Amino acid sequence: MELRIEGMTCGGCAQSVTKAIQSVDPDARIETNPAARTVRVETTATSAALQRVLEEAGYPATTN
Length: 64
Prior knowledge:
Layout: E1 2-4, H1 11-24, E2 29-33, E3 38-42, H2 47-56, E4 62-63
Helix pairs in contact: 1-2
Protein name: Copper chaperone
GO molecular function: metal ion binding
Domain HMA: 1-62
């Protein structure tokens, strides 16, 4: 799935986003693109679960 995260603007943000996603699914495959403010995730977690954990981390996300 692909998520858009307006608040992800740098590498540090991308690391925080990655850690948040891994807290839900440690085996998730994650590809962040801070310049485009997008994240591609291959995961068994639901979109709702990812959006909830990202919101809690301060990076609200929408699905693309």
